[in-house]
Structures are given as C-alpha cells and as structure tokens.
Amino acid sequence: MKDAVAGPDGAKIRWVEIGGDEPARVCVHGAGAQAAAYFTHVMTLPSVARRRTLMMDLLGFGLSDRPADFGYQLEDHADALARALDAAGVSGAEVIGHSMGGAVAIVLAARRPDLVSRLVLAEAVLDPVPPPAPGTLGVTSFTEAEFAEGGMAQILEKVGPLWAATMRLADPVALHRSAYGLRAGTSPSARKLLMELTIARTLLVGALSQPLEGRAELEAAGVRVVTVADADHNVMLDNPQAFAATLDGSQAPGSRG
C-alpha cells in the first residue's frame, strides 16, 4: 500500500498499486465503495495486468484518511486526487471511474488535463442527483449530524451486505458531504464537461441498469458508449471479462457500442 498527502492537516490518500508498465491506469471508486475491492479482480486479469495500476481510495473512504475540514464536493475530491497523482509521479494516465468516481474523473480531466489521457467511465454520474423522493430513505434524507449519529446505520441496513461491506469503511461525514456533492453536481455539469473534452472517452453502461439518458448526444460529441451484457450498475463486478475487454481495446461478446 502506498500513500501521499492530499488534504488538509496532512491527510493522506492511500492506494494499492500493481503492475509496472506506463502509462499508468488509475481506478477511482464510487460513493461508499473502496477501490481495491471493486477493481483488483479485473485489473489482475492477464490482458490488463501488465500496466501500472493505482487503485486509489478517495479521502474519507476505504483506507484513506478522513479529514473533518474537507468539503468532499466533486471538485474537492478531484483536486485531492490530483495532488496524490502528482506525488505518485503519474501523468497522462488512463483514469477509470465508477459511479461517483466517474464524475470525479471527469472533473479531474477538465481541471488537470496533463494527468489524464483517456477516461473509462462505468455508470458515471453525469448529472446532479435528485433528492430522495418523499417517504424514501437516502443519505441526504438526514442532516449531517443525524447521519453520523444513526442515519448511516439505517442506510447500511438498507443497501444490503455487498455495498455495506465497503460503505461501513467510509467516514459518515465524508459520505454525507459526498452525497450532497452529487446532488449539487458541478458547473458546468459533468455531462457537459465530458462532452467538451477532446481525449478518448468511453462510457460503460450495464444492460440491466437504468437506460442512459442523452446517449445519442454523448455519442455525437465523440464519447464511445458501450452497453455491457449481463451487468447492472457495478459493471466491473457483474461482468469483469467485458470490463477488461473494453480496457484492452477488444469487444466482449454480447456487449454493444
């Protein structure tokens, strides 16, 4: 495990690193996730394992520090990630982001184009996330204090054992602020930033997930959209072979795009 100072008061981002060939690949997890748990089984497959790969935990999540004096907005996460990549000597990387991590990766590419040569986004959050519907339970149903004092326990019970296994590693304040960051989105939106980028961009969507809004518009802007067979939101967990095939440039059977 490696680390670098990336936040206030010496707060460190930590990551698991494998492989050795450049350019590097950087894996960024979603809200309540942890990078190595979601990516190791894919990034160690023979077709992709040779590349230097950093599976990085955002501040407040997984193995990384949990600074209280940190905003946890998408821009905050992107800037902290940039500081860690600078410390790791990474530039021109292929950045792979899942869900919230996809939005962070887009912001990173827009703010620090020297760090990113290609984006591979799995079910990335492209638009501000609406608040929970009345009568439903979500992270932003609670105030920050309520979430830290008992709301997180309710959410862990709701999401089930798979997601809870990594979500319970998150700092409640970090998770709550990050969830509000997803509600706020960015300005311009992550969708617009993605469409305006000129680097190679691939967006993976699970065939079993919700339909992708604005697919034709994204494709017209040069974003390669791939529908991955037998996959829901957690594409890399549901169909790792297809995920790896996208990374190494091949096309997995059953995938479209």
UniProtKB/TrEMBL annotation:
Keywords of the record: Hydrolase
Pfam families: Abhydrolase_1
Keyword check for Hydrolase: yes
Domain AB hydrolase-1: 26-129
Domain of life, per lineage: Bacteria
GO MF assignments: hydrolase activity
Keyword Iron: no
TM spans (from-to): none
InterPro entries (alphabetical): AB_hydrolase_1, AB_hydrolase_fold, Carboxylesterase_BioH
Gene3D superfamilies: alpha/beta hydrolase
Full protein name: Alpha/beta fold hydrolase
